[in-house]
Write a sequence for this structure.
């Protein structure tokens, strides 16, 4: 059997294959952070994809933690209840489990929808607010400096991650991913480029990783025993010196494993406007491979993985334990079906689709029962 279609376990959650739909911001929520009809059709599409797991977009634990005013939130019960209703509908389409990525954008918050123009919206404008960060260092040269968080405010954010985690479980999600990548708040604490604090949350490596570790601990403390909580990280800032790098990521991953993280999801970049990313097929896979060599929990690779043979080779070469797809899945919502056909594997689909099995393939599709 192709490794891509083997089972994988994240704590007590067992996936039918190793294809994971990575979180992708849709910028389609209401001003109150509530899901809309866009999410209904999008999540249904994910459910019918045949993937082993879908992790929905970065969902803010505070209103000020949204990237934009159109981001999904999970900081109140109304948001939870609407998501719960949708997940209850989705589960009748397929057994694909859904997870959620909990996030805080920090200094990269208060922006417009990306297709309406980049840049930060000032706090005195509609849809704008004051951003926060570990230190008062703006992300872009035209951005306003963020407010440097106090210790009390740091503790409040940790409490809000935990409260959102409780809501995530109540809503019916089967997994939580903590977003510590792409230059958002937890990554801002990790990198010496954005964290110039002189207290217990800044300075040394041990101090800079403290916020991420404490958020994981806060979340783990409020979810059921065995409920999977993973962490997405940026393996490097793609900056030449004095930045977050792969060696730091290995150390962080080992510390996260010690605290019970279910997996490490390895991305990169997003912290600095001058980053120099060497983009290409598999460009982040070596980072995942290096982390995998140093931890025993599953490692997820992501980033310009677009072809079934490419994904299978990463697993065969023991460079990662699972494959996450983002843009490739947006472009081809039935990517797992096509991967199964290419690799000679079997995949479960809704019985309504059985008749579309490619001619000449006797057992590509098998139906699950609703």
């Amino acid at each position: 059997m192709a490794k891509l279609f083997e089972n994988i376990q994240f704590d007590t959650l067992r996936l039918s294959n190793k294809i994971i739909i990575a979180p992708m911001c849709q910028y389609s929520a209401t001003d109150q952070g509530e899901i809309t009809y866009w999410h209904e059709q999008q999540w249904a599409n994910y459910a019918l994809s045949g993937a082993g797991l879908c992790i929905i977009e970065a969902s803010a634990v505070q209103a000020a933690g949204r990237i934009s005013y159109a981001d999904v939130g999970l900081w109140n019960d109304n948001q939870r209840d609407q998501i719960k209703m949708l997940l209850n509908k989705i589960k009748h389409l397929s057994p694909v489990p859904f997870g959620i990525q909990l996030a805080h954008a920090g200094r990269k918050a208060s922006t417009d929808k990306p297709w309406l123009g980049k840049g930060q919206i000032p706090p005195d404008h509609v849809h704008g607010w004051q951003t926060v960060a570990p230190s008062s260092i703006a992300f872009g040269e035209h951005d306003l400096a963020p407010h440097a968080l106090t210790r009390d405010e740091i503790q409040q954010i940790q409490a809000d991650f935990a409260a959102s985690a409780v809501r995530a479980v109540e809503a019916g999600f089967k997994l939580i991913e903590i977003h510590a990548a792409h230059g958002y708040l937890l990554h801002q604490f990790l990198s010496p480029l954005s964290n110039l604090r002189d207290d217990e949350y800044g300075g040394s490596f041990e101090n800079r990783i403290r916020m991420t570790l404490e958020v994981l601990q806060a979340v783990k403390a409020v979810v059921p025993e065995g409920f999977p909580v993973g962490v997405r990280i940026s393996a490097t800032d793609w900056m030449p010196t004095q930045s977050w790098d792969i060696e730091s990521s290995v150390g962080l991953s080992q510390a996260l494993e010690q605290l019970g993280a279910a997996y490490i999801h390895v991305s990169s970049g997003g912290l600095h406007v001058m980053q120099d990313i060497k983009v290409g097929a598999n460009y982040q896979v070596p980072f995942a491979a290096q982390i995998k060599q140093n931890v025993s929990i599953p490692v997820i690779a992501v980033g310009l993985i677009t072809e079934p043979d490419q994904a299978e080779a990463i697993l065969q070469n023991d460079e990662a334990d699972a494959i996450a797809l983002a843009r490739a899945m947006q472009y081809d919502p039935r990517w797992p079906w096509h991967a199964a056909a290419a690799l000679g594997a079997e995949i479960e689909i809704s019985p309504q689709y059985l008749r579309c099995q490619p001619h000449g393939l006797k057992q590509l599709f098998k139906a699950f029962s609703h």
